[in-house]
## 1
Amino acid sequence: MKTTFLMMLFALLWAGSPVKEGYEIGDTAADFKLKNVDGKMVSLADFKDAKGFIVVFDCNTCPYSKAYNERIIALNKKYASLGFPVIAINPNDPTQSRGDSFDEMVKVAKKKGYDFPYLVDESQSVAKSFGATNTPHAFVLTKELKVAYIGAIDDSARKPQEATKHYVEDAVNALLTGKPVTTTKVKAIGCGIKWKNA
Amino acid sequence: MRPLILFFLLCSSSVFSQSVESVKLVDLQKIIQATGDRILVINFWATWCAPCIKEIPYFEKLNAEDKNAEVVLVSMDYDLDPNTDKVNRFVTRKKIKSRVLVLNESDPNSWIDKIDKRWSGALPATLVVNSKTGKRELTQGELGEGELEKLIAKVKNQ
């Protein structure tokens, strides 16, 4: 009887606590369906042969996105063929950041020769469910969409050659070799996602 | 000849007086933790961050009008550009009167949580601290009209 009461109390307390937005390590991400720069809708389920994913919330305008642009392109070049494609998602509200409109995304993808999806998260619901805050903000997922890494791509935004820790590569390499990911969460300075005004 | 040199020296020193302070994390932590009788308002910004620049007038207004508030604008420019010239020029051009610091630290992952665990590292972010009670509020993203006042009211409440 006592335990039932305690359990009920816990349930009440649990229900009363605010719902935390965003995934933690080990959570299973929900798949999504978003429009790509080629106009087609893309879901993670479309990648039948993928062993996992490098999901990067990114945009056209942020200086950090620009600083990491070549590194994101290089991640896909290195890992797509190994089964870990890059999926870039732009969540920014284009009314607040005109350079992040869908048309501008199409231009950037073309100019930079993106060979990975660059999706628009118009409702911002995917960024919210992931708990993305910055651009760029990387999430490494397993084949089963379990979240294995959240955070920065490496530890040197300024100069790629000065990076001593390559967090995303290390996480993907660990998953590819069946080892545990050692560094799972890394914070970085970056541009806040331009959320729509409530 | 000599007055000319003096003139140049004066010019350079007046330019120098505009320059921002370069600080380490420990210096910033001392400012945040100092006890007293004021409301500390720390805004994390950067010269490249458009929403940060848009909200600076709110902090300038508070700095000018509220003697009880201590406003500190902490530039995060160092991470992308360790040269503080850009910050100096910005502060001079915009005639910023609030105290401006540049946080001179690498590897943000090692110190973001030491400023506030809730902070993702995204800019802009604003930390408001009641230096008497230690009560603090962190907001991430651009402040709208009246939001800064609401944050201050929150940390003033017991």
## 2
Amino acid sequence: MALLSVRDLRVEFATSGGVVTAVDGASFDVGAGETVALLGESGSGKSVTAQAVMGIVPKPAGRIPSGSISYDSKDLLAPGVAKGLRGREIAMVFQDPLSSLNPVFRVGAQIGEMFRRHRGASRREARAAALDLMKRVGIPAASKRLDDYPHQFSGGMRQRVMIAMALALSPRLLIADEPTTALDVTVQAQIMDLLTRLQAEEGMSLVLITHDLGVVAGVADRVILMYAGRVVETGPLREVYEHSGHPYTSGLMASIPALEGPRDRLVPIQGSPPDLLDLPSGCSFRPRCQYADEQCAEVEPVLRQLPDRASTHQAACHHPEGVLTDVH
Amino acid sequence: MTARRRTRAGSARIRFGFAVIAVYVVAAAIGPWLFRYNPVDTRTADRLKPPFTRLSDGSFAIFGTDQVGQDLFAQMLQGARISIAVGLATLVLAGTIGVTIGLAAGYFGGWLDGVLMRLADIQLAFPSILLAIFIAALLGPSVVNVVIVLAVANWVTFARVARGQALATRRREFVDASRTLGAGTWRLITRCVLPACVAPVLVVATVEIGHVILAEASLSFLGLGTPASTPSWGVTIANGRNYLADAWWISTIPGIALAFLVISLGVLGDALRDRYDPRLRSL
């Protein structure tokens, strides 16, 4: 049974231009101990999905009119349920580690507060526990840095502090929302290594939200691709990368520069992301898709198994055969 | 280099403000022990003596005496104590009420914000001295009532500042981050939003305390502030009004003392705002 199960999730935001459906019927599962990458470009609904799971969708602009999110058979959308699980069972790491740390408290106190609040630890115990955690996430001279403020840390170190706070109570599910986007490339690799190492040690599930296909390539077991609020393709990482069944996925693959071989011009995806206030009928990717026909304009495609591929590999496209044969 | 200079903005003004205020506070704290003041004491022989007069008991009246022969200097020291005490008590009360209401309005938003801020608008639309006169007439003159009156007239400024900070802070990422790590509403307000309010509220407090001290003097001058047995500066100034032609010092000297304190507080408040108000800090 899946640890986290999202079914037909819809998240809407009231804006001055009308109601935006940021997540439109997304469904996916995350198994225990699994690493899942939630991929998509800006505005695809990946971060909002995470916010819905954590119960931090901005109110009153945002609301969840339908769908369900269950964690370990508990309904996360029921009032009061998510609050008891946050921090202890489910934790989250954010994109910008400077703005996600409280600027007015020392990092040792911020990490230690997790133990004081949830475990009733004394000040001294919390401090010792915070020091252990800081060492575990690889902060050099941790005992000296315990009393520093967040602004005194570098970006990578701040993200380590944030990860330390998230892991303080050994959660079973960690959601990392673009954890490396704000960091230098070399630091990105270090943070990814840290996350995968900790994930292996703790045996927790990890949901990696990113727009960077490269970041998750060596890490994720499974990928979920989102486009305009919908899940367009899902499957084991290697399957999806090598046998993309959705034109959006294959377009993304084609737009990655190759490190070896002849340097051709990159192939971009034509057009621009859709206006969420004015989505095209049927398939939202249709205006940018070379395979689009009348069926695509009329019927919204649903996720289904791809021909001749594993049952876990699904794409929401009317013409997966064309996509599969054209690319490979 | 520029950043360093900017963080030092207004150092001289801040030092000047603090120095003047320190003199007043020390005078108010220990002055009345050194120069005894008895409100019911009358010495007709020493009535209306000008400054720098030796009195009948051999003491020296540096600021002269008033219409009943009281030493004006002792009276002003006593008055400083009342003015500063009333000012501080009012700030604490108005600040507590204002910050609580502002945080609630800003953090929770929605109808609560609407109701509380309309209440503040109504309060602002009403001339505060008129409101103070009304409440003072209703409650009667006493030091405690003056504090209540002035707090009612001044909480709105604090509420607005706190609300602004709460609005700006509550959608900051670290608030969401704290929430995802299991912090409840109370903790988010006290640990994330309230600390963000401290600096701007302190700046507002320095600016407001001058207004409050002045308002207390105005109320006392009008006879609606502290009773005559507790001679705040307003009372002394009011008493001297009838003798302006022959004994200018009774009203003038406390007036100058009051003006100097209020100006110093204003200078300090402005300097602190220049230094700490993020809106004035160029990015």
## 3
Amino acid sequence: MRRINWLGLAFLSPALVMVTLFFLLPVVLTGFFAFTNMSTATGVMGGDYLLNTSTLRALADQGLPKETLAKLEAGGYRVDEAGLAALAAATSPATADELAQLHAGAEFSDRRDMERALKDLRANAIRNTRDRKAATELFKRSILNERFSEEAAFRAALSETGTRPELSDQITEAAFTGWVWTTDNVKLLFALPSTLRYAANTLLYVTLTLAFNVGFGLFLAITTFYLPKGQGALFRAIWFLPRILPPVLYVLMWRWFTWDTGFLSTVSGYLGMSPKNWMLDTSYHAWTAVVLINGFVGASMGMIIFSSAIRAIPTSMLHASEVDGASRWQQVRWIIVPQLAWPILFITCYQTLSLLTSFEYILLATDGGPGRSTEVWSLAAYHTALSNYGGNLEYGLGASFALVLVVIGIGASLIYFRLFNFKRLITKPLIEG
Amino acid sequence: MPAKNWPILLLLTVVTLPLLIMCGYSVIDAFTDTAPGSLVPTRFTLEHFRFLWEPVAEARGSIWVATANTFVFATTSALVVTMVSLTAGYALSRLNFPARGFFLAGLIVLHAFPTITLIIAIFLILQMLGLYDTLIGVIVVKTALELPLGIWIMKGFYDTVPWEIEMAGVQDGASRATVWWYLVLPQVQPGLMALILFSFLSGWSEYILPQVLAPGSDARVLSTYLSSLILDDTKADFNLFKAVGLFYATPVVVIYLLFQKHLMNIYGGGTKG
Amino acid sequence: MTNLRALFATTALVACGTAALAEDINITVWAGGSNDADSYRWEAIEIAADMLEREYALQGEELNITVEAKRDFGGWEEFKQAVTLAAEAGTAPTIVVTSHLDIAPWSQAGYIVPVEDYLDLDAWPLNDIYPNLMKIAAYDGVQWGLPQDAESRPFFFWKETLKGIGYSDADIDALPAKVASGEYTLQNVLVDAKKAVDMGLVEAGYGFYPRVSNGPDFAQFYQSFGGVLQDPETGKLVLDKAAMEEMYQFFVDAVAAGVTRKNHIGTEWSQWYNEVANGKAALWHGGTWHYARYTGQEGNADFFGTIQFSLIPAGNDKGHANTITQPLVYLLTDQQDDKVEEVAAQLLKIASEPRMNALHAIKSAHLGITKQQSNVELYSNNRWADEATERLLGTANAQPNHLQYGVFAETMWKGLEAAWAGVQTPAEAVAAVEAEMTAKLGDELIVR
């Protein structure tokens, strides 16, 4: 029997709490959100019950009987006995009497007209605006534009309007302002022509950037390997900068480099070309920029891993090949690259996932433009959930975009476990063993 | 071989040129004025650094508040990540406890996870905890998202410590906790240092989390300060941007120059694509 | 309605002048899309706070109002994100200055409260605000906000270039009327722009120099070709495919003729302003507030001598010359303390007074919101405010306040971007737009 060391769980617990709360829980919640119609308009935390003209319009489309609609719509404000009594109680009987004299039995569809009626009071004027507003409410006989936080209260108010009970479920459902469960998001993902484009963009982005990362990382690792130590280290240090500089600043440098008034335009201006925005000129420019911006960052990872792998190659092998008269190219082709097969596979797997989900640099550089040509899936998720021209952020749809990435991420991880032989990673602890 | 090196050197210099130009002009333009359509600076000036003593525009916060926030944000998240990783990494590397394999596998999955796409859900949780739009909230989230990598790195460092050290300690009758504290920790000190630096830099650079989770002016950090400056369409003053950028990047560059070796070790397996 | 009595009781108490303790009220104002020139969006609230404190003091109530303003959000996107999430978290600013389009989703979500709950709309100065502007700040028959400013989005001509292609001074003076009557159309725009480019008066791509990012401006061109945004009968959004395609085609034609740059979208705003303010472009369109920018920061000393402005010309027989006004609105958010909402509403009322609004209108070159503003000398003596109000505001319409309008506008823009950049043909783009809108808007869309 292996001994179990509970210290292990104790040591792990702080990490577990944090990771669970801000990592696993969000994953689960994203899974739930993906199946809701949650948006700014529905709010995140439940909702109220509200009938307004928009709801009535929707209900009319659903085929609610005309007379019911008319009932819901009508009412408005009525100077009736009950209202006058309430007014008398709140202010004075004289006030109520004066209003009754002027407007008894009157009906107003508009709140403003009711307020005007109250303003007509001369002898018993209600001077304060707030008080007049409050008095107006005493005569309100419609539930239009009134927010009910409780369903029961809404239903009660609904039945007071004389709506047929069998219709109240339908009306209550339409009046609910909060989010509801739905599979529409998934359907939308398949129905929208734009999602296909985002998927294609993502594929292009990952493939190109990955190819650049591996290729250029390899190039840097090999070239710096052949340089004297100091020079090699210097170049590696420079190529490390893109990774270490804050993204906002790094992309700013690129913007300056490619902008209409920036470096490339100025230099091409010397050659007589008119200035242009080299980053956003066409979608080809944008793609080049996106791949290079990400690639410069990504290549340094390959550079470091490949460099240490190359240094691990026994120097005797390289010397032997030189004695045999092999050129450097042959050396690279037949000795170095074959030794790098595993590191290359590792970088490929690792960066596929991180590229799939990273959008920070694209957001800062092209923001998906021009013409959405560099809008990748993760950026689309971000845009859908967190930016909307009309102020209505679509959390639910955004979450379903994210969910696709989550599923791909988990799937890919499982494949990688097989590929890299997960068992090998878990060496057994020796002391309890 | 040196005789044959110049082609390589030339090739490398040419491909490195764009990067050198970008970095070089970031410094040059921050301190000089250049006429439009030219690349040759005409005069030296410190005017682009005026943001240090006055707000750049009305109703725009001071950079010092943002700097202080960034510093608190980066330091705190670095310390918490390191401390939590220190224990968790040890547990995963050395201790036998239930479901250890499961935790290890989970760690690797999380390590390469689309964190940022979870932001709406994260917002919701922060809000329930009352931490939305606070620096603490962003720190906690950043820390949690950084943890899987931190633990993974610390585990790697623990893995290299020889078992004999602990065996000897345990045979002398010390508890595992004592052995960890007195014997193992000193062995992983370089790793600890590297992880602190790494997480500090990562926090210092973070953009999207503070942008979305702490948009109020109280919790503004340098990355959001700079980006809102860039996004403001009234003036695309690249000299000013570069001066702010230089100010922002100084700690990064200093740390990088001093601790290059440590960092390269970690970034080799870093998170960024 | 249970606490009505309590309400009456408190006001009665206050009215009696019972000495009360000083009360601290904190008002936060967040203003989206605001530059330095727009500072009166929040400074007006600060001035109003001073007034209101005095008014309360005379009524025997000591009120200590502190106003805290914030405007540095990056862009509109970041601003809306921040307001939405803050409102969801219950930490929304008291007053928001934003686009009227946000009223629909934000009222539905319960983030904002109607100003009509607090203010007498029949009393001065609110009864002096142009009714069409008030309507824009209303949704579903409820007055949610108050217009903060008015503007409209004119078409601009660089006079010297026009003269270069053969216009006389009289022709140029007659141009606005010709545009309004539909005699001068977008087809003429293409012809004139092409002339200017061919004759070398402006560089290629600078003949017609449109806005560089999504905005209400492009809905104007949709209207120029007979497009309608909202069906007045049912309140549903309308996609007029023919108008949309012709609108896309217009921009594609402009690119093909070499008068507009294919990569125009995403041009830096600061560069754009500088170019149009100094005659690098022949024809372009913008907003009334551009006046402040052109004459101020960009250093155009003779606006009226160099630039002519008009409505956006009609595109074809079905459409007509038009302009869209997109007033920003003051909105009140739902707060824990009703007193804060009440005070904030009072502040909005004071800030809407003609003299106060004139400060903003003149500093930022927006148009006034009240009729009496023409009696404020600061405003009436300003040639731009005067002429622009007369030439543009009368026919201005607004985009609809509709829950899904954001989706509509974004999809329309995506289609335009794709056609403009040559990724899709106009017909393909419209087909994609139709598919996307039908899927997302469902019953709320009428396709024609």
## 4
Amino acid sequence: MRHRRLNFSVGAFVFLVLFCAILYLAPLIYLLNVALESAHQFLANPLTLPHPIMWQNFVNAWRDATMGVYFSNSVIYTGAATILAVACAVFLAFPVERRYVRGSNAVYLSMVLGFFLPIGIIPLFIESQMLHLYNNRIGYILLHIQGGLTLGFIFFVAYFKTIPRELDESAALDGCGYLRYLFQIVLPLIKPALATVGIYAAVAVWNDLIGPVVFLANNSLFPLTRGLFTFYGSYQSEWTLLAAGIFIVASPLILAFIILQRNFIEGSLSGSLKL
Amino acid sequence: MVGRAPEEPASGAPAPPSPRRGGARTGVFQGRQRAAMYFSMLPGAAIYLVLGIVPSAATAIISLTNYTGVPGIPANFVGIQNYVQAFTIEWPGVAHSIIDTLMFASAVTVVQNVLALLVAEMLRRRVPGVAFFRALIFLPAVLGVTVIGLLWALIFNPSGGPAANFLRLFHVSTAFFGSNTWALPLVIFVQIWSSLGFTVLVYLSGMNAVPVELFEVAQLDGGSAWNIFRFVTFPMIAPSVTVDVLLAAVGSLNVYDLIYVLTDGLYHTNTLGMFMFNSAFQGSGNLGFGATLSMMLFTITLAVALPLQRYLRKREARIL
């Protein structure tokens, strides 16, 4: 703070204001603007403020794009895949970090290796058909555990290191079972890590578009991303409805980002450290 | 910024958990508790093996077959036929695709990093509202390719979109994402827009790790802002440069979901990833050939990333 005057730069401030306003705020404001315009106004003069304000666009977009179905699919997929990914990662990471099981080194190395290997979307598609994971909810969820599992594993191993082994020993001596120890003692100690991995994994599942294109065929199974993209395909000229649709899909993400920003940034930075 | 995230993976392979003599430690959880431990590991291990390791390795095998993905049609082992095809009948398309990929990836890597350095340098100075700017630039990372793609399709809508209206002032009109000239630059722009925030954050955390005294001394010696950046900031953040350049290069070589939304690979934006996806999953669904393209992309990624990583690490060692 001592150097506030030394470092303050008007030029930097002006640059940042212009940069953010033109490239980041303006597109989002324009999106909202179009979402509130009547189709007539959009064709005549889209850059003017909406008049009259068409709240109806949101209702119509929600109804015409059958977003209710997509929305509940997205919630189910994201919720289930995230919880399962985090649980699997904890169950794998703890014994491996503690070397309580044989082959801990091998498991650890293969998880790190998995970070480097390309995701084989083509073999995954073939496997999904062989294992009957294609075009059904359970399969779609199972196919989306992988990403969060690997990130979570690497992340949790680092966190478990901070929990002293003596705690395990005294719990075992007191007759506390392994699973109870994990859930009641260990998990509360790594809450921040659980939140970070969970949020990062959830956003990845929620936003996935290639997954639903490859692994789902029925409209009724689509999540929001694919639903919105299909809507785009059939309503290409009706931009006011489409903008309302984009806004509906984006707003929970923007809201979640505002609340959970720190967790998200932390997860994304550490996810990158795989290099 | 990174918080308590593991730091060591930034430099080389992460260290394995501290080795203990005698391999597995027994003695803490025994009997039924030990069984519960093994049992709880099963679901994760099975999913990782079947849906993680196997598909990663199997692309190479699929590329040697004529798998179509259409139920009922048998798949045969065809040797290197797909590779022969890629270099003969399909070569014009493949060659174009390789050119598109390299143009896309090099433009994204260079521009994204230069721009991110500029933005990070501005954010580093004590300006009001830093947290807000940083969050705004990072926001696209959460929006996902569908929202990002459609948002920019709305802005670059050729009939009456704001970009088209602006260009009309200069009596210019173009189809934007439907134009052979503009589609690739615009896709590059949107890709940079969506990943800039992350690149900035990595640079910023690198800059924050530089001792303040270094800047003070440079400033007292009367160094200009540009010279301080050139001789102090930029050399000191060499590890961040390594991470950001490598991630941008590997990431942009392999991107196709955003391109799928914006152009579906048309108008000279058919990168290898996009070509792979469309060969495998559109129309006849030639999974074998798609896997071949995937292997070519993997080879190119390695051929770019490994020398690049070696160069950047050497550079770090030379500077620091």
